[in-house]
Amino acid sequence: MKSILASALGQGFAALVLASAVSARDAGPVAMPDFTKGDPIPEGADHDWNLGATGARGWMFSDKLVTTDARQIRVTRVDEGSPAEGVLAVGDVILGVAGKPFSHDPRTEFGRALTVAESEQGNGVLEVIRWREGMRDSVKLQLPVLGRYAATAPYDCPKSKRILAGGLQGARKQGGRPGLP
Questions:
Q1: Interatomic CA distance for residues 22 and 40, integer angstroms
Q2: Is residue 179 part of a domain?
Q3: Cα 176 from Cα 152, distance rounded (Å)
Q4: CA separation (Å) from 143 to 24, 52, 124?
Q5: Total structural domains within the chain
Q6: Of the four, 36, 80, 127, 163, which is 20 to 30 A from 174 by CA?
Q7: CATH at residue 170
Q8: Is residue 45, in this structure, part of any structural domain at all?
């Protein structure tokens, strides 16, 4: 089981890195937009990020895929049937997590908040600060409780096994169709 899990996770990671590299075109310097002031996603800056178990994707300012200067995530997709459906919509702007505005890299802050929310302690609740049509509010997404990563992750790690099983189930639902997110 260890080798199957490691192989699947390793292949998934390699595919993620490859997909990121392929979709990240060097469009030259991109100005940092302020979505709360109506700025659009800059033309040619089409790389967005998977927002984990939320079932949403979002675009954030990056310099060669480094997002440390970003402070906003513009929602670009919400999957049907996902925890984000009905809570987030394409065009919404995520300004922070856990009741606090982003203060450094939103990918890091969002990822840490996801880890806490997915734990037994977090009870599956991810609170995000959402900006929509000029209004800022706090909304909660109900995520699956997956537990914490084991020190040996991905080996002998119940959370890694749950993530792998969920990913495989999602791939089976897609039926191997091209254009998987």
A1: 22
A2: no
A3: 31
A4: 29, 10, 5
A5: 1
A6: 127
A7: 2.30.42.10
A8: yes
CA distance 114 to 167: 17
Q: Would you say residue 181 lies in a domain?
A: no
Q: Print pLDDT tens along the chain (181 aa).
A: 444 444 444 444 333 333 343 344 444 567 899 999 999 999 988 899 999 999 999 999 998 889 999 999 999 999 999 999 999 999 999 999 999 999 999 999 999 999 999 999 999 999 999 999 999 999 999 999 999 889 999 999 999 998 899 888 878 877 766 655 5
Residue 37 to residue 97: CA distance in whole angstroms: 20
Contacts of 159 (CB under 8 A, 6+ apart): 118, 146, 147, 148, 149, 150, 153
> Phi, psi at residue 11, to the nearest 5°?
-65, -40
9, amino acid identity = L
